[in-house]
Automatic annotation (TrEMBL):
InterPro entries: ADH-like_N (IPR013154), ER (IPR020843), GroES-like_sf (IPR011032), NAD(P)-bd_dom_sf (IPR036291), Quin_OxRdtase/zeta-crystal_CS (IPR002364), Zinc-ADH_QOR/CCCR (IPR051603)
Record-given protein name: NADP-dependent oxidoreductase
Gene Ontology cellular component annotations, sorted alphabetically: cytoplasm
Biological classification of the source: Bacteria, Bacillati, Actinomycetota, Actinomycetes, Kitasatosporales
Keywords in alphabetical order: Cytoplasm, NADP, RNA-binding
PANTHER family: QUINONE OXIDOREDUCTASE
Subunit record text: Homotetramer.
The Enoyl reductase (ER) domain, residue ranges: 10-295
Any one Gene Ontology molecular-function term assigned to this protein's record: RNA binding
Main location: cytoplasm
Protein species of origin: Streptomyces californicus
């Protein structure tokens, strides 16, 4: 089978499309014929050699956590799916023609494989950090870097929970944030004052890692009210870096429910072929994403 892999840490150019042995579903696992794989910042952070404790890397390594596809192998003990079912979920080395998933759920009706592949890690992360930052109904949450996949999910899930959200993003994505129910403002010079003009902030999330941690602490008044998924230096300011996943099956079930009720929609901004994985990583790292990027196989 074809699979994206890298034998050394580095830039996007270390990615190679190789011929690899097919993986197989062990106990409690399933294998899917991958139709699409989500592109997440963790993918290129690991490829660069960033030390993310929740995701140890042994070289040579495959790429990708999220996938949507058709079940073609069911491991021992798995009873909730059958060969031929359409699922989305999380596993390992999903930039490939076949991948083993450790968590999955039936694909919601009406979703394409490309759309479904964009949800698993994104929704798990969004649910986790909303809970970790402790924001409650009636409060105001600031989301720095709000237009990407996780930000899109946070805005919609928080809105569903009765939380008011202020989102920062580039000028081109202001209308997009408003469509998701956020109070929108741009980052850049004067952004702290613009946020203050939208009212007091009870909690804040840093999704972009753009050096804003001290400002978020100042806006909330307490480092315990700030969580980041992007700034590894945040603990120096007393701010929690969240990198360990919670319950992916629970997140998938909640995602499916929200999607089915029309309460969650994350658009696919751009799709790539397996041969374009390096371009997908470069684009993801550059930021300014509106929604999700996916590999289509």
């Amino acid at each position: 089978m074809k699979k994206v892999s890298y034998a050394a840490f580095g830039g996007p150019d270390v990615l190679d499309l190789i011929d690899a042995e097919e993986p197989h579903a062990g106990p409690g696992r399933i294998r899917v014929s991958v139709r699409a794989a989500g592109v997440n910042p963790v993918d290129w952070r690991l490829r660069e050699g960033q030390a993310l404790g929740a995701h140890p890397v042994e070289l040579p390594a495959g790429v990708g956590l999220d996938a949507a596809g058709v079940v073609d192998e069911v491991g021992e003990g798995v009873t909730d799916v059958a060969v031929g079912d359409r699922v989305f979920g999380e596993g390992a080395d999903t930039y490939a023609e076949f991948a083993v998933l450790s968590a999955w759920a039936p694909m919601p009706d009406g979703l394409s494989f490309a759309e479904a592949a964009g949800y698993p890690s994104v929704v798990e992360t969004a649910l986790r950090i909303i809970d970790e930052v402790g924001v409650r109904p009636g409060q105001k949450l600031l989301v720095s870097g709000a237009s990407g996949g996780v930000g899109s999910a946070v805005l919609q899930i928080a809105r569903e929970r009765g939380v008011t959200v202020i989102g920062t993003a580039g000028a081109a994505n202001q209308d997009y944030l408003r469509e998701l129910g956020a109070l929108a403002t741009t980052y850049g010079d004067g952004w702290v004052e613009r946020v203050r003009g939208l009212g007091p902030v009870d909690a804040a999330l840093d999704l972009a890692g753009s050096g804003v941690i001290p400002d978020l602490v100042a806006l909330t008044g307490d480092p315990a009210k700030v969580v980041t998924i992007a700034d590894l230096g945040a603990p120096e300011f007393g701010v929690r870096f969240s990198g360990v996943a919670g319950s992916v099956p629970d997140a998938l079930a909640e995602a499916a429910s929200l999607i089915a009720r029309g309460r969650l929609h994350i658009p696919v901004e751009k799709s790539y072929a397996l041969t374009e994985a390096a371009a997908a990583h470069a684009d993801s790292r550059a930021g300014h994403t509106r929604g999700r990027r996916v590999i289509v196989i």
